[in-house]
Structure formats: structure tokens, C-alpha cells
Amino acid sequence: MSHGRFNNPLIAALTGFFDLFRAQPLRDRFGPSIRFDQQRVLITGANSGLGFAAAVDVARRGGHVTMACRSQIPEAGEAARKLSGTDTIEMRRCDLADLNSIHEFVEGLVRDEAGSMS
Fold first, then answer.
1. What is the DSSP string of 18-83?
2. Quick one: average pLDDT of 18-41?
3. Which phi and psi (to 5°) does residue 17 adopt?
């Protein structure tokens, strides 16, 4: 049963091993000098792990971060604000496994954006 570009686990493992040692052309593309000033960035799963780290890093680089999470609201947002040293982080509830939650999330973004323009 194939779930991607590999149909053999050995080939997949060897490819991963090869990738560890080959040149990574995009590695330096997201270096420390990249800024997000005046940019709005939506990060899903931002209450923990990689999403949380990305939210903190983008906020440190000047971006306005919307953390879309299904739990740990507002604790994760407060922690991200503290670590990034900025208050340009907002949290919104969104459960990507629930279509109604996604619709409510988007409607809230549209409503708040329309309210800020008037």
C-alpha cells in the first residue's frame, strides 16, 4: 500500500539518509535577516511544538501572528508574547478536524478585518 512517492520502506529510508548529506538548496533562504514587518502570518497548531516555535520566531521578526489552536487558549498566546517580546500575537480557536470550527474561524477573521477598516 503506497501513501506517497515511495512504495518500498527501504527505498524511503535510504532516500531520507541520502537527504541528510546532500546539499540543501533552500537551507539559507530563511536566514536570520528575513523580516516579516507589516505582514500578517497565520500559523495553525501554534499552541505547541513547531507551530509554537514558528509563532514566536515570526513575531520576533516583526510579523503580526495569528495563532490558530484548538486548545491552550490563552496560555500559549501569553507564553509566545513573553518569549517573543512583542504583543503582535493573537490567538483564535480553530479545530481543523471540525468544518464548523473552520467556518467560524474564517468568519471571525473576516468580521474583525471589516471592523478594523471602518
1. HHHHS--TTGGGG-TT---TT-EEEEETTTSHHHHHHHHHHHHTT-EEEEEESSSTTHHHHHHHHH
2. 80
3. -65, -45
- Helix (H/G/I), strand (E/B), else coil: 7: coil
104 CB-near residues (< 8 Å, 6+ apart): 94
pLDDT band at 117 (very low <50, low <70, confident <90, very high): low
pLDDT for res 27? 65
What is the reported pLDDT for 2? 47
For 41, the grid coordinates are: 502570518
Arch. (CATH architecture) of 39-105: 3-Layer(aba) Sandwich (3.40)
CA 52, CA 65: separation in Å to the nearest integer? 11
Q: Count CA atoms within 13 Å of residue 102 on its CB side.
A: 5
Retrieve residue 31's grid coordinates.
Answer: 536566514
